[in-house]
Amino acid sequence: MNEKKAVIRTIFLSTLAFALLLTAALAFSAAAAESLPERIEKALARGDTARASTLTARIKDEELRAAFETRCSFAEAAACMEAGEWREAAALYASLGDASGAAEGYAEARYRLAEEELENGAWDEAAAHFDALGAYADAPEEAQRARYEKADALEREGEVHESILLFHKLGDYADARERAMKLAVTICGRRDLDAALAAARYLSPSEVAHRNELKEKRDSLPKDVVAVGFYHTAALRRDGTVLACGDNSYGECDVSAWRHVKAICAGAYHTVGLLEDGTVVAAGRSDEGQCEVGEWRDIVAIAAADWATFGLRRDGTVVVCGFNGYPTLSDWTKITAISGGSYALAALREDGDALLSHESARSDELHDLCGIAVNTGYAVGLREDGSAVCAAADLSEWTDIVAVAASANAVLGLDAQGRVHAVFFHPDAELDLSPLRGVAAMAAGGTHCAFVTESGDVITLGENEHGECETGGWKLS
Questions:
Q1: How many angstroms separate the Cα of 393 from the Cα of each of 201, 284, 353, 378, 432?
Q2: Is the full-model pTM beyond 0.85?
Q3: Are 343 and 303 in contact (CB under 8 A)?
Q4: 56-92: per-residue pLDDT in tens?
Q5: Beta-carbon neighbour count of residue 240 at 10 Å?
Q6: I need a surface site. Which of 233, 274, 411, 455 has the fewest CB within 10 A?
């Protein structure tokens, strides 16, 4: 009996072992039959990117392998985003190049990283990341917030000089201007922002006072009240009307009907006026479209080249019409002043650096400026200390300069005493400027120059073949 039971037990165990082996063999066979892509898909579905990457490396088809590598990288980047590993996620999205969705993922990761650094007080790093994002979401605003928070922290820590410089650079952001003004009282005892900024840059008290005097003089000078073209001259009366004389072949002198004008400029054969309401009028040659300014709005300053007209918008951007030989100006932002001459345009940014339309006019000296003038091939910059810089001429002996002008024949400088200085490029183009006194404004042209005295007289010197210098009876005041 016992032997019979033993036999039965042996048969049962053998059958069970065979069944288990058969099941395992079938399972192994099924797994082996499953393709690599299917196994990768399952790994990705359960979030096992490491396993998916390992399996992807075994795919022999290069195109298929590359497609799965991209999917694995996206999955890994998404996992990093979910874990708050913004830097790692940004690096992964960046490695994906032009793959669809990579740029958006990179921007989002970089934005989150910037937010984290801002929260941790790493203001410079945060601002740099927000700046790099351009117009993404509210990145420009957040970059300003990072700088504002740094300025605020520096003030609380007693770093007054550095904080006022940062608040000043923030311009109209939040209450930055008012904060800077309050710090001015701390630094120099009065609400004089320019003096405080100068002091913050470690200038001596005497130099601060000197710069303040020059600034007061610059601010008191009439702006854009006289302009010269090739063969005509225009001047702006205090009542907002305009005078013109000289060649009128294209109607460039037909300005007598203009009213409410606040600034003028002139190109080769056209005259432009900026009205008090921010619109612009123009007269003269428009073969290149330089007088097509009728649609311009919200303009705060104007300038002209020979065949083009430029307008500075209130938002710090620049518009242009006429000769289409200038680079794209859409990237020119935060502009505070513009100047045109011959075939060139120059602009000043809020930070005092110059932008030039042509490579030939660029110079490493054109920074920390408060004024600029340009002509083909060169530009002249004015600094707060009354010095002037120009790659085309030696101006080292000029002092107390409060305004500059540029023509094809000369660089002109006006000092605080109302005297005109000049460096002429050609002996036969030289003009005798020594008798000029009490000058308040000037315009440099190719064949003639015009000057406005403090009493409102207009003095024009140079060639007069077309009557462009017949301004003796003009009175602007």
A1: 28, 33, 20, 9, 19
A2: no
A3: no
A4: 888 888 888 888 888 888 888 898 899 999 999 999 9
A5: 14
A6: 455
Q: Which residues of the chain have pLDDT under 70?
A: 1-34, 189, 204-205, 208, 325, 327-328, 360
CA distance 434 to 239: 31
For the purposes of burial, counting CB atoms within 10 Å of the CB of 198, is it exposed (0-12), middle (13-18) or buried (19 or more)?
A: buried
pLDDT at 1: 53
d(CA 165, CA 187): 12
* Range 305-308 contact pairs with CB under 8 angstroms and sequence separation of 24 or more: 305/267, 305/340, 305/341, 305/342, 305/343, 305/344, 305/345, 306/230, 306/267, 306/268, 306/342, 306/343, 307/267, 307/268, 307/343, 308/267, 308/340, 308/345
The torsion angles phi and psi of 448, rounded to 5 degrees, stand at: -155, 160
The CA distance from 160 to 27, in Å, is 75
Q: What is the DSSP letter of 398?
A: -
Q: What is the residue type of 242? A: V
Please check whether residue 233 is in contact with residue 225, taking contact to mean a CB–CB distance below 8 angstroms: no
Would you state the structure tokens that stand for residue 348, as one six-digit string?
């000043």
Residue 285 zone, left/alpha/beta (φ > 0; ψ -120 to 50; rest): beta
